[in-house]
């Protein structure tokens, strides 16, 4: 009797560990659902929108200018932020605010990206904390899930003029 109970218990624990490992790998390498908060990505992503983030792009270095990414916050590593990639390593980027009369530019260092929110007047981004290490990228947002009337792939940046070609 005891042997039977122990056998079932260990079998259950074995299945739990196996499925836990599969779930971990799925969320770490494939992607997951993310609830976005804050106004920094408006009008593209509103507060409380639900999006799908895939994680394969970061592992294979497929992040491109214009992609919206989930990143560990450089200011608070316990939280994630959602921003658009404006520049990749070696790119020349505008580091000043839209309201600044004199525009300043800089180059993105090796192994880093330049991130900005679509709502430039209400976004804490690379203009505040500088270039972000590529290793902090958690995933790339593919499409919006909620609200249903906005379901689908995300639209282009309203700040396309900030992408500099050099």
Automatic annotation (TrEMBL):
<dbReference type="Pfam" id="PF10502">
    <property type="entry name" value="Peptidase_S26"/>
</dbReference>
<dbReference type="GO" id="GO:0042720">
    <property type="term" value="C:mitochondrial inner membrane peptidase complex"/>
</dbReference>
<keyword id="KW-0999">Mitochondrion inner membrane</keyword>
<feature type="domain" description="Peptidase S26">
    <location>
        <begin position="104"/>
        <end position="146"/>
    </location>
</feature>
<feature type="active site">
    <location>
        <position position="83"/>
    </location>
</feature>
<dbReference type="GO" id="GO:0004252">
    <property type="term" value="F:serine-type endopeptidase activity"/>
</dbReference>
<dbReference type="InterPro" id="IPR036286">
    <property type="entry name" value="LexA/Signal_pep-like_sf"/>
</dbReference>
<dbReference type="InterPro" id="IPR019533">
    <property type="entry name" value="Peptidase_S26"/>
</dbReference>
<dbReference type="GO" id="GO:0006465">
    <property type="term" value="P:signal peptide processing"/>
</dbReference>
<dbReference type="GO" id="GO:0006627">
    <property type="term" value="P:protein processing involved in protein targeting to mitochondrion"/>
</dbReference>
<feature type="domain" description="Peptidase S26">
    <location>
        <begin position="16"/>
        <end position="97"/>
    </location>
</feature>
<feature type="active site">
    <location>
        <position position="40"/>
    </location>
</feature>
<keyword id="KW-0378">Hydrolase</keyword>
<keyword id="KW-0472">Membrane</keyword>
<keyword id="KW-0496">Mitochondrion</keyword>
<protein>
    <recommendedName>
        <fullName>Mitochondrial inner membrane protease subunit</fullName>
        <ecNumber>3.4.21.-</ecNumber>
    </recommendedName>
</protein>
<keyword id="KW-0645">Protease</keyword>
<comment type="similarity">
    <text>Belongs to the peptidase S26 family. IMP1 subfamily.</text>
</comment>
<comment type="subunit">
    <text>Heterodimer of 2 subunits, IMMPL1 and IMMPL2.</text>
</comment>
<dbReference type="InterPro" id="IPR052064">
    <property type="entry name" value="Mito_IMP1_subunit"/>
</dbReference>
<dbReference type="InterPro" id="IPR000223">
    <property type="entry name" value="Pept_S26A_signal_pept_1"/>
</dbReference>
């Amino acid at each position: 009797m005891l042997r039977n109970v122990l056998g079932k218990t260990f079998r259950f624990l074995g299945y739990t560990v196996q499925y836990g490992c599969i779930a971990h790998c799925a969320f770490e390498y494939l992607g997951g659902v993310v609830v976005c908060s804050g106004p920094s990505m408006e009008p593209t992503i509103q507060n409380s929108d639900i999006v799908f983030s895939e994680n394969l792009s970061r592992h294979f270095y497929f992040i491109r200018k214009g992609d919206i990414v989930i990143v560990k916050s450089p200011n608070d590593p316990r939280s994630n932020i959602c921003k658009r990639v404006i520049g990749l390593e070696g790119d020349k980027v505008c580091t000043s605010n839209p309201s600044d009369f004199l525009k300043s530019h800089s180059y993105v260092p090796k192994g880093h990206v330049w991130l900005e929110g679509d709502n430039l007047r209400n976004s804490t981004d690379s203009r505040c904390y500088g270039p972000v290490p590529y290793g902090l990228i958690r995933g790339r947002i593919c499409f919006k899930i909620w609200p249903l009337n906005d379901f689908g792939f995300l639209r282009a940046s309203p700040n396309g003029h900030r992408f500099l070609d050099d």
